[in-house]
Structure formats: structure tokens, C-alpha cells
Design brief:
disordered N terminus; three-stranded antiparallel β-sheet; 68% helix; Nucleotide Exchange Factor Grpe, Chain A, domain 2; elongated; alpha+beta
């Protein structure tokens, strides 16, 4: 009985060894038929990956170069505009400064040009002093000159500040002195004008110097 069982176990073992041998032989035959299938597939995939990577890298590099060139061109354009604007502003500043200097230097040109005819009248009046003794004629001549000069001042916005018999106003008058007055309505008012004051448009050009009743 024991011998029969051992024989059967040996048969099973022999059969397993035979099957494994057949599998190895089949595998060897397949390797012989397709010896580089797995290796070729791996190498082809890696080659394609390397090609794709190199191509993508070259494209990105070209884009970077183009962007750098575009940036340099834009920078050069902006620098050129800045230089031009800076030069224009410098010329404008110099021109404006020159105009301001000329304006301050010749601001009274028109005013003085209007005064010159009055100067001519005074010179003619002085010449007549030596040739005539008629005081009435001289007086009339001086009054004419005074009238012309008064009109000239009015044309240029200069007008007299009304002060006599007006209430004293510190914004318009400079009180030189105070004098006692008998009339009650003259107290605190201007009773005498020592020097006339004038407006220039709406601004006080010169205050009136006055005497105030007390």
C-alpha cells in the first residue's frame, strides 16, 4: 500500500516538471520570434518623448526671444518720446521765463506811452512862461493839462477816493491828526484832506491822508 502511494506522488511531480518545461520552451520560442518587441517599444517611446521635448523647448525659446525684442523696441520708443517731451518742456520753460522777464521789464510801457503827451504839454507850457506874462492864459493851459491827465487816469481805472465830509474809514483813510469841532455831525468825520487817495479798479491804490473831527 505504501509503495503504491509513493508511486502516485512521483507521477504527479514528474507531470509538474514536464509542464514547467513546456512553459519555458514556449516562452523561449516567443522570445525567439519577437526578440526586441518590448525593448523597441520602450526605446521608440523614449525617443518620441525626447523629440517632443526638444521641439517644445525650441518653440518656447523663440517666443521668449520675440517677446524680448518687442520689449526692447517698446522701451526704445518710450525713451525717444521721453527725450522729445523733455526737450519740448525745457523749451517751453525757457520761453515762458523769457516772456515773464519781458513782461515785468516792459509792464508799464503802455502806461508810460500814454503819459508822454502830457509831458509834451508841460514842456510847451514852460516855454510860454518866458514869452508871455498873461497869467490867465497860463492858468487855462495848466487846467487843460490837468484835465487831460485826469482823463488819462480814469481811462486806466484810477479814480479818486471821496473823503471830505465822509465818515472816517481805516480801510480808505490815514488819519494824520484830529481837531476839535463844534458841529456834532462832523465828529468822527473827515474835515480836511491833506493828500488825495485813489482806487485802481476796486483796489485801494493809495490811502487818503486826512484830518478827522473830534
Amino acid at each position: 500500500m505504501m509503495k503504491k502511494k509513493m508511486k502516485n506522488y512521483g507521477d504527479v511531480k514528474h507531470n509538474d516538471i514536464s509542464k514547467s518545461t513546456e512553459i519555458k520552451e514556449n516562452t523561449t520560442d516567443q522570445d525567439k520570434l519577437y526578440p526586441q518587441e518590448s525593448d523597441n517599444s520602450g526605446s521608440v517611446g523614449s525617443a518620441e518623448s525626447a523629440f517632443d521635448g526638444s521641439e517644445g523647448g525650441a518653440t518656447s525659446s523663440d517666443k521668449v526671444v520675440l517677446e524680448v525684442k518687442a520689449g526692447e523696441e517698446k522701451l526704445a520708443e518710450m525713451q525717444d518720446k521721453y527725450i522729445r517731451l523733455s526737450a519740448e518742456f525745457d523749451n517751453y520753460r525757457k520761453r515762458t521765463l523769457r516772456e515773464k522777464m519781458d513782461l515785468s521789464k516792459y509792464a508799464g510801457e503802455k502806461l508810460l506811452l500814454g503819459i508822454l503827451p502830457l509831458m509834451d504839454d508841460f514842456e510847451r507850457a514852460l516855454k510860454h512862461l518866458d514869452t508871455t506874462g498873461d497869467c490867465v492864459v497860463l492858468k487855462d493851459g495848466i487846467e487843460i493839462i490837468y484835465g487831460k491827465f485826469s482823463d488819462f487816469l480814469k481811462q486806466n481805472g484810477v479814480k479818486e477816493i471821496e473823503s471830505l465830509n465822509c465818515s472816517f474809514n481805516v480801510d480808505l483813510h490815514d488819519a494824520v491828526s484830529k481837531v476839535p469841532v463844534e458841529e456834532a455831525d462832523k465828529k468822527g468825520k473827515v474835515v480836511d484832506v491833506l493828500l488825495k487817495g485813489y482806487y485802481l479798479q476796486d483796489k485801494v491804490l493809495r490811502h487818503s491822508k486826512v484830518v478827522v473831527g473830534d
